[in-house]
């Protein structure tokens, strides 16, 4: 068991909270920084501590963009070896209307964090990037997209990820002994098997599974299926859905990979490499819940592509990690979470 200290930003959010559970289970000491802009920090921490039977080393309620406050975190904790940086705004549609907020939070906030890390000589950095950096792709092979593809995005949110990736590459040139893992997540879904934590979107969900769950719990009338005229087996879009617990474990693998290095910067896809259609997801949720799910086919959504899949061989080779859980397991855990917490983390 390791007793290293990891600083997590955004650790009370969806992916961060699942990752903290895996970090605590792996024996890490965890410090969290989150301003609660898209989470319920006290409830999330209470629940993840309940699940693991362990405590966070420290929790700071602060905006990581406030440099003087962030500096105090590093001053008070000289044992931080690695930073896992989840904190960001993440709604693609919202980013189109609020680009300045997105660039400030996601890019300027990350710059503050990196500056403070440099000042305190902390050199291991795991970054939450996104498959969205591959842009609008019309040539995704069946084996998935490899990391050496060019990156460009089609939303301000996506561009924040592209910018930070470039910043990290430049930083690695100037600071050759830094160890950086840029993790490009595909479509995270599901929840912890306890049903105590899961995705808790504020407002109307944009993503498929959270939307379906709200239909299943009676909060929305029906699912709009965005197009059934794609060139796929049932006409709906294909994505690479990954269980959030598998994704969380990918971060432990990445942190361990960085710990042993003296200078590395790698972009790594985290997905399953398996493609599922909208109907595959809908049918799986129907199967695991025994519920009918009202749905209507609507026109295509602007910006959507037919197929978006990860080539996952690099993650396996470098991190020794691959996703293990099936679509039915993702859906069963997602449904269990939604059933037990129809109002998200505000339902105790
Ligand atoms: P989330 O919104 O649930 O979690 C993000 C957390 O960061 C929240 O708890 C929020 O309060 C916090 N936060 C945001 N800005 C902050 C700031 N300036 N200071 C302190 N805390 C701040 O999102 P998530 O789904 O857990 O995503 C985590 C990361 O993964 C994000 O960087 C996101 O862009 C990336 N990502 C997510 C997905 C996805 O589908 N969920 C896919 C690809 C990449
Ligand atoms: C999946 C499929 C839709 C909703 C987005 C972001 C990406 C990343 C992950 C952060 C598509 C269909 C959806 C609905 C539907 N996030 N759909 N009805 O678009 O692959 O990726 O989340 O980094 O940046 O763009 O995920 O869940 O929105 O859509 O039919 O109500 O479900 O058309 O085929 P997407 P999604």
TrEMBL record:
One of its GO terms (biological process) is galactose metabolic process. GO terms for molecular function: UDP-glucose 4-epimerase activity. It catalyses: UDP-alpha-D-glucose = UDP-alpha-D-galactose. InterPro entries: NAD(P)-bd_dom (IPR016040), NAD(P)-bd_dom_sf (IPR036291), UDP_G4E (IPR005886). One of its GO terms (cellular component) is cytosol. Its EC number is 5.1.3.2. Keywords: Carbohydrate metabolism, Isomerase, NAD. Gene3D superfamilies: NAD(P)-binding Rossmann-like Domain, UDP-galactose 4-epimerase, domain 1. Residues 7-333 form the NAD(P)-binding domain. Pathway: Carbohydrate metabolism; galactose metabolism. Belongs to the NAD(P)-dependent epimerase/dehydratase family. This is UDP-glucose 4-epimerase.
